[in-house]
Design goal:
The chain has about 475 residues and is an alpha+beta fold. It is built from 15 helices and 17 strands. Helices cover about 35% and strands about 20% of the residues. The strands form three sheets. Strands 1, 4, 6, 7, 8, 11, 12, 13, 14, 15 and 16 form an eleven-stranded mixed β-sheet that branches. Strands 2-3-10-9 form a four-stranded mixed β-sheet, with no helix packed on it. Strands 5-17 form a two-stranded antiparallel ribbon.
Length: about 475
């Protein structure tokens, strides 16, 4: 095996980590940050993007390249999560104060220098994913760092921006985007110097993600995290690998791009400054030229934002480190593995709130947020992000009062997700899962035992559970059978 000397080849790696924030409202309007699962939109609009020169008199090279395709852009709109701001038919509203505070908190955790005043900018986006043709973005802080096993990696910039629309389908003539995701607040973390190798890049990306998630305000859903990798070597040029799907693939993408650039240099060919789509095996394909400096200009519809008040609030409420959070969870009875999964679930804040509010086993609460929701997503293909804080609160209140048992939780949440109009209590009643009393359970055990005289305890327990599944705790059934058999 050949060990590569990354310093000798002049390897330079920069990460751009995009992470959605878990706010109730979008960044520049009061629409909810929901993802719609139903196929049919309430309305659609069609647009054709046309390039024009900005204040500098220049048209960005990436814009020119994209417009050559002359694609028709179709936007799917849903009345309950999109508005005129999303379709660029109305000026943006005042920026979401919660999102600003979270972004300031994240900048503080990365030890950044934070600006006294934030200027909203427009960044030209050429793929059609934003009806306006630009993304609103705010530089929050610069000159920070994140600690890794190989020393500090520079955090060049922490940016707050609006997420783009979701690509639903694409062909040679058109592209269709759904506007439900458009406007969701997200932070972008850009690294500077300090990444020494492909594996070190993976470690740095994980460290960045851990810090963002430690706020308890990171949104966890499909597409909520996107990772781009900028790579160059001596004699080559900067290339951006777009949307690396997992941490483990980051070193693979870098290694393959090094080899691609080395082969081009060896053959005397120029390495072009491109954005390249990352494929599942870590190789890349051309997407478009790298945008130039002409893509960014001021947003004239939003006044500059003073940060002093929000920054003061953010500094008062800085979150614990991930290690401290895991240690605290372990004191509540969670295993280290469950605690780590909980921190990655995006539900840590709700976990802490409900454990304090209700007399429910913390391990059970964590299990709902980690295991039950994951099973509903993977097995039932349901969008668990539709469940609200109110839904979870109602569920844990019923559990604390003994009005539903833990074995029924999955069925109750499944019905709720399939029937938005039902409350959690309605779901329990509709499924007939109201727990039976101790006396009723004893009566059932006695009745079944008398009909099956001489049967082993295991069979009696099985017959009882078949009748009371979802309405009685299996441990209670076993206890009563044991007591009656003595």
């Amino acid at each position: 095996m050949i060990i590569m000397d990354y310093q000798k080849i002049g390897l330079r790696v920069g990460l751009e980590i995009h992470h959605e924030l878990n706010t109730n409202e979008k960044l520049f309007c009061s629409c909810p940050t929901l993802l719609k699962t139903k196929e049919k939109p309430d309305s659609t609009i069609i647009r054709h993007h046309i390039p024009v020169a900005g204040e500098t008199g220049k048209i960005d090279v990436a814009v020119v390249e994209e417009i050559k395709k002359r694609k028709k852009i179709i936007y799917e709109i849903y009345d309950d999560c999109d508005c005129l701001v999303d379709t660029d038919s109305e000026p943006p509203h005042r920026p979401n104060q919660e999102a600003l505070k979270i972004a300031l908190t994240i900048a503080e955790l990365f030890h950044c220098s934070i600006f006294d005043e934030i200027q909203v900018m427009r960044k030209t986006i050429v793929d059609g994913s934003l009806p306006s043709g630009f993304q609103r973005t705010m530089l929050i802080g610069t000159d920070g760092w994140v600690e890794t096993s190989m020393g500090k990696v520079e955090i060049e910039a922490v940016t707050l921006e609006e997420d783009s629309g979701r690509l639903i389908r694409k062909d040679n003539d058109s592209a269709t985007f759904r506007l439900d995701r458009l406007g969701t607040p997200e932070v972008e973390i850009g690294t500077g110097k300090g990444i020494a190798s492909p594996e070190h890049a993976r470690e740095a990306a994980k460290a960045i993600g851990d810090i963002i998630r430690s706020t308890g305000k990171a949104k966890i859903r499909e597409g909520s995290v996107r990772q781009d990798v900028n790579i160059s070597i001596q004699g080559g040029d900067r290339v951006e690998g777009k949307h690396v799907p997992s941490l483990s693939l980051i070193p693979v993408v870098i290694e393959k791009e090094i080899k691609r650039q080395q082969e081009l240099v060896k053959r005397g060919k120029k390495v072009s400054r491109d954005v390249r789509r990352v494929l599942p095996d870590g190789s890349t394909e051309f997407l478009r030229p790298l945008p130039g400096a002409a893509r960014m200009y001021p947003e004239t519809d939003v006044i500059p934002i003073r940060t002093d008040r929000l920054l003061k609030e953010a500094r008062k409420n800085l979150p614990e480190s991930l290690k401290e959070i895991i240690k605290r969870c372990q004191k509540l009875g969670l295993s280290e593995d469950l605690a780590k999964q909980l921190t990655n679930s995006g539900h840590m804040e709700l976990f802490g709130k409900f454990v304090k509010m209700f007399k429910v086993d913390p391990v059970l609460v964590a299990g709902v947020f980690v295991n039950t929701l994951r099973d509903l997503e993977r097995r039932e293909k349901l969008d668990v992000n539709q469940l609200s804080e109110k839904d979870f609160g109602e569920l844990f209140e019923l559990l604390s009062k003994g009005k539903v048992i833990k074995e029924s939780i999955g069925d109750v949440l499944k019905l709720k997700l399939e029937n938005e109009g039902l409350s959690i209590t309605n779901c329990v009643e509709k499924l007939g899962l109201t727990p039976i009393s101790e006396n009723e359970l004893k009566r059932m055990v006695k009745e079944i035992a008398s009909k099956n005289k001489g049967a082993p305890k295991g069979k009696i327990i099985g017959l009882v559970m078949a009748k009371v599944r979802g309405k009685a705790d299996p441990k209670a059934v076993m206890r009563i059978v044991e007591e009656m058999s003595q």
